[in-house]
Amino acid sequence: MTTNTKYSRAQLQQADTHHLHPFTDHKELRANGARMIVRGEGPYIYDTEGLELLDGMAGLWCVNVGYGRKELADAAARQMEELPFYNSFFRCSTPAPVMLAAKLAEIAPENMNQVFFGTSGSEANDTALRLVRHFWALEGKPEKNIVIARNSGYHGSTIAGASLSGMTDMHNQLNGAVPNIVHVIPPYAFELAEPGESDHDFGLRAARAVEGAILAAGADKVAAFIGEPILGAGGVKIPPASYWPEIQRICTKYDVLLMLDEVITGYGRTGNWFAAQTFGIEADTITTAKALTSGYQPLSALLVGDRIANTLVEKGGEFFHGYTYSAHPVCCAVALKNLEIIEREGLIGRVREETGPYLAQMLQERIAGHPLVGEVRSVGLMAAVELVKNKTTRERYMPSGTAGTKVRDHAIANGLMVRAVGSSIIMAPPLIWERATIDLAGDRLLKALDSALAELRP
Ligand code: PXG
């Protein structure tokens, strides 16, 4: 028996009272107990009670190749047997991260040829923030240090990650964010576009909020803009097509670096290796983590563009930054095997050409017309369903989350794991989903919407 199978749910829930969970109201958790997930196979996860759930969230936006991949376990075991750890400080290195860095340079956008490793997206964003400020200092402009980010953005939970994030509740608990970070509106047309304003015009207006912030601070004070190509944890907010080209124009005009956070969108989710390719964005840094190993090991890679890397190499001296587990050989060995699987199985092309369009079609044809649904939207295998009280006025059920948690709980009861973000339901399934899996998810989501509707409008 393994740790996963030898305990009952009651035993696990008892022991779990010693465990402080992330992003959790601990009193509420102790009153209700956690669902204990003990096994995964392909697109499914299983709990202690034997309930089978179709995992519409790929773990936490990361298990892109699905569960139960023995090849990844073998890659980790081989690396652990040969060399479980050695560091990459003090002029040392090990083969796995070296080969992974070269591979990432091959699949990344053309101007990205250097990689800095960490173990989480939050760490990678700390690295990115320090690196862009260091870059401008090396260029003789240390006062060019303000970073512009967005409300509803999510960039992690360390102090720098939370400071870059645009979540009010997180900021309120920080009691002092990292200074010189400014937030502007996100490109969220469903709630923020004015009546009669086209998506195109709203996209330009949202991008020009960045220009406004640059002009307010003075371009000689602004180091960079950071954004997720699609806001993920903030609710799969997909920008209008006009947004990213305008952001690119603005960053170029004022010589502001463009930092992309692809912790969720990286490694195939939008139908290309990176969403930078899907949206045609040329960035100076790209933060990646999660699906780099499909979540089988903790690993992040900050992809660094040539402009920053050249300065760092040519005039940098020592960059006083790094983590014990930067370039961890076991994590990197797993990442190499994971990228090999993604390529060998053609998962990214399938998302781009088949399952992404099929998911969009399923949502349009089967979900969009439901009385609770105000909008469906998706890119690749990343989707949101907006829940409303009134389809025309887009009035919401209050307090925020009322409809979201109801639909989510019914979805889980019907065998589909999804996530609720305020008044929306979001999905980011493993890239191994096929048409039949998407149909099944559609059946279960529809049942959940009907059950929630019956409770909300008895
Ligand atoms: N950037 C983005 C875009 C993320 O989505 C991070 C950075 C931080 O990564 P780490 O590995 O430090 O967690 C993330 C993480 C959710 C949820 O509820 C999303 C994340 C993490 C936890 C929960 O959707 N994204």
Count of the domains: 2
Shape: globular
Q: Which structural category do the helix and sheet elements fall into? A: alpha/beta
In the CATH hierarchy, what is the superfamily of the largest domain? Type I PLP-dependent aspartate aminotransferase-like (Major domain)
* Ligand inventory: 3-[O-phosphonopyridoxyl]--amino-benzoic acid
Strand content: 15-25%
How would a crystallographer describe the biggest sheet? 7 strands, mixed
CA distance, first residue to last residue: 47 Å
Average pLDDT metric: 97
Shape-level CATH architecture of the largest domain: 3-Layer(aba) Sandwich
Helix content: 40-55%
CATH class of the largest domain: Alpha Beta
Query: Segments where pLDDT lies below 50 for 5+ residues?
Result: none
Rg, alpha carbons: 22 Å
The neighbouring-strand order within the major sheet is 4-10-9-8-7-5-6
What's the number of extended β-strand segments? 15
Could you name the CATH topology of the largest domain? Aspartate Aminotransferase, domain 2
Number of discrete helical segments: 17
